[in-house]
Design brief:
Rossmann fold; Protein-Tyrosine Phosphatase, Chain A; 15 helices; 21 strands; alpha/beta; UDP-N-acetylmuramoyl-L-alanine:D-glutamate ligase
Length: 469
């Protein structure tokens, strides 16, 4: 745990008692603060009470006694409308911050030069975060991994010299972290997502930019227009920026993916350039696809900045096991490969999986995001058949139309069974049963992890049944 001491001997309000909220209460209490914690859900309040944590009704509380509101990142700060606690905090004239801000304040107090790598992006941030942490650990460093991935940031060990914190940051967390100042800030990309929580794509991009604007060194994807504009602004502001790309690039200093591995464009003088080979990804089986090329480029650049040699980075690529629920190889039945890509909760994320495979038997659907799957139309030729589940079924069936054979399955178990049946009967050399829903999970599952775990169990049980002697 990292005790949060910035409110020692003061009283703070905290709203949101999920996993990170509970961790934050514990850290604040350990740091000497008095906490009035609350949640709109009775079950969440009872869970906190069972853990001996201080639960106080913030609806009737006297807000003049609070020094700050610590807000869970899952709670609306601005859109579609501010949560009622936000209105009370503003009326009381107190700051509204989150758990990552408390971590940043502890780092500033304990070890301001301790390494802190912060990663964000619309897609790929979890894989990149896990990959960076894996490489650094394999290189022998003391690594603390968490934030929006896995362990809440305040449940990690405190910042210290010789220790590296590798923290995934969502846009919601960044919005609650005014002093975010990593020594390496990574922004992979900006594509439409969470517009309901930020109002406009411009607002969303501006929040993402705050992570790199506060960083000492920036690793920045340059494959979308929003990030290219940021690149120009950051250079103009005098920032040190390493550009990265998932395609060949002549941009000087750009670490890019060529399909064969990572390369970098360097200047030789007199207008001449050299494309320097950096790393092969041929044996990095968990990093297949151009999108993972960009993730690898980001990890290479961040780890290089922290002093890890190229050989150790390459070894880390090859030994990286991949991320659960992100193009995760589950099982093989004969020639049929089952891939769990449940973390693909929007079309842009699902695109990465479709680009990586041919002869796809695609399980798709859930609670649709804005735009649905229309942007995936150029990849429909890769899909042998689609299996529709969840609330989006009618809309997705209309989009697929006559371009992709499809059937309504309703539930994941039916879709998995039927996709496996058809894949096993086809003539492709390596058919793929792909769960890449392009949707949120909330219509049928608590989260994408629960959806992915269900698919893993279904595929594994199917394999056990079909492969019995």
């Amino acid at each position: 745990m990292t005790p949060a001491t910035s409110f020692r001997e003061r009283t703070v309000a905290l709203f949101g008692l999920g996993g990170s909220g509970l961790a934050t209460v514990r850290a604040l209490v350990a740091g000497g603060a008095t906490v009035a914690a609350w949640d709109d859900g009775e079950a969440s309040r009872q869970r906190a009470i069972a853990q001996g944590l201080p639960v106080v009704d913030l609806v009737t509380a006297d807000w003049s006694r609070f020094a700050a509101l610590i807000l869970s990142p899952g709670v609306p700060l601005t859109h579609p409308s501010p949560h009622w606690t936000v209105g009370k905090a503003k009326a009381a004239g107190i700051e509204i911050i989150g758990d990552v801000e408390l971590f940043c304040r502890e780092r500033a107090r304990l070890a301001p030069d301790a390494h802190f790598v912060a990663i964000t992006g619309s897609n790929g941030k979890s894989t990149t975060t896990a990959l960076i942490a894996h490489i650094l650990r394999q290189a022998g460093l003391d690594v603390q991994l968490g934030g929006n991935i896995g362990t809440p940031v305040l449940d990690l060990e405190p910042p210290a010299y010789g220790r590296v914190h590798v923290i995934e940051c969502s846009s919601f967390q960044i919005d609650l972290t005014p002093s975010l100042n990593p020594d390496v800030g990574v922004l992979l990309n900006v594509t439409p997502d969470h517009i309901d929580r930020h109002g406009t794509l411009g607002n969303y991009a501006a929040v993402k930019e705050r992570l790199v604007a506060g960083a000492d060194h920036v690793v920045l994807g340059v494959d979308d227009e929003h990030c290219r504009a940021m690149f120009r602004r950051l250079l103009a502001a005098g920032k040190t920026v390493t550009p990265i790309s998932n395609r060949p690039s002549d941009l000087l200093g750009c670490t890019h993916y060529t399909g064969l591995g990572l390369h970098r464009s360097i200047a030789l003088g007199a207008g001449r350039r050299l494309v320097e080979p950096l790393a092969s990804l041929a044996q990095a089986h968990a990093l297949r696809g151009a999108h993972n090329g960009q993730n690898a480029a980001a990890a290479f650049s961040a780890c290089e900045r922290l002093g890890v040699n190229h050989g150790a980075i390459c070894a880390g690529f090859d030994s990286f096991p991949g991320l659960a629920h992100r193009m995760e190889e589950i099982v093989r039945i004969g020639p049929v490969l089952f891939i769990n890509d449940s973390k693909a909760t929007n079309a842009d994320a699902a695109e990465k999986a479709l680009l990586s495979f041919d002869d796809v038997f695609w399980i798709i659907g859930g609670k649709a995001k804005d735009g649905g799957i229309e942007s995936l139309r150029p990849l429909f030729s890769k899909v042998r058949k689609a299996y529709l589940i969840g609330a989006s079924s009618d809309d997705f069936a209309r989009t697929l139309g006559h371009a992709v054979p499809h059937e309504y399955c309703g539930a994941l178990d039916i879709a998995t069974e039927r996709a496996a049946r058809d894949a096993l009967a086809c003539d492709a050399p390596e058919p793929v049963v792909l769960l890449s829903p392009a949707c949120a999970s909330y219509d049928q599952f608590a989260n994408f992890e629960a959806r992915g775990n269900a698919f893993r169990e279904l595929a594994s049980a199917l394999a056990a049944r079909l492969q019995q002697p």
